[in-house]
Amino acid sequence: MKTFAVALAVILFLVSSPSGRAATSVFSDADFEEVDWEEELMVRPPPDGDGNGTGNFAAFRDLDPNPDPDEEEDTYRQVYVVRDPDVAGMDVSTRLFSLAREARHDPSTDGAISSVDISLWGLHLANGAVGMLEPALLQGDKLYVAAGLQLPELAWTRKEFLALGESHFSEPGLPDSHPDFSNSGSEITFGFAYLVSATTSAAVESTAGFDDWRLVVTHGGIGTGIITAGINDAWFEEATSGQGFFITALPDAGIVFLAWFTYDTQRPPANATAVIGEPGHRWLTAQGSYAGDTAVLDVYETTGGVFDSAQPVPQTSNPIGTIVITWQDCLHATLDYDLPAHGLEGRIELVRIAADNAALCVALTEEH
Fold first, then answer.
1. Domains in the chain, please, with CATH?
2. 364 φ, ψ to 5°?
3. What is the pLDDT of residue 49?
4. pTM of the model as a whole
């Protein structure tokens, strides 16, 4: 019997691209030995004694023609999922997670993850319901999935999920709960999930086969010195276009400065007025030190001034919170903010508004 050290290929190498220096870890498994995989079953809504349903599964390997035409036969993974009878009209799902024990990446030691690619072959077995194949991962005690693809095919079909970031993954039923791919994130175990969901009161079952699972994790190294004058630019999150950041690194001073152009947390009254701009405009500034690919900044508010006038003298507050920015590469960064003075905290996935300065970032990073 092959050991997982052979069945799971782990390849590490460095690649250079317009997005900067990145390491790529490749994991694969075509044999699906039981010792190499672990299963977790999740039912949503969870069983609570109110008839929300239960589920059961069987996951095993067997002989079947391999999608690879060069091989006559090979082991594959067969998954059987049952969504037990329940109250009609309630959307109840049974999801079986298959997690590769050795497909692990720790962002705190192996580098922040910028993207994940997952592919595998699948087919629909038996005459049961069509299930959903989903990329999946475990971080801490939480399971996450990304948007899946239905698996109705009766012949082996390759399914691919490309360029997945942490925002693509969420806890089932909790769309705002995401894993942490930054350098502060804990160890992640990758795999896939098979979902059966229905609103009928009858039992629903599905059987599927999977083979040739492959995972590519693209990540940045620790302490790569990516914070240089090459990150100086306008950055924003595509989902909130119309607000964003000017970020400037000052290497001689050893600091990063940031200006955040945004809006108030709610719209001003309809009768509010302003001479320049509009009453809902807000801006904050932040500055602090950095090391490697992470900057930790204190956030300030400046108030009391008038347009293009020395009087009255504007007043700058004591720090009202913190911002931590981690760069995955020369085009992508994650910004975490905590503003306890206003009861606000969150995460923003940043990209450059334009890539003109990215080449300088790559060149300066390579010098480090």
1. 4-219 (2.60.120), 229-367 (2.40.128)
2. -70, -35
3. 39
4. 0.55
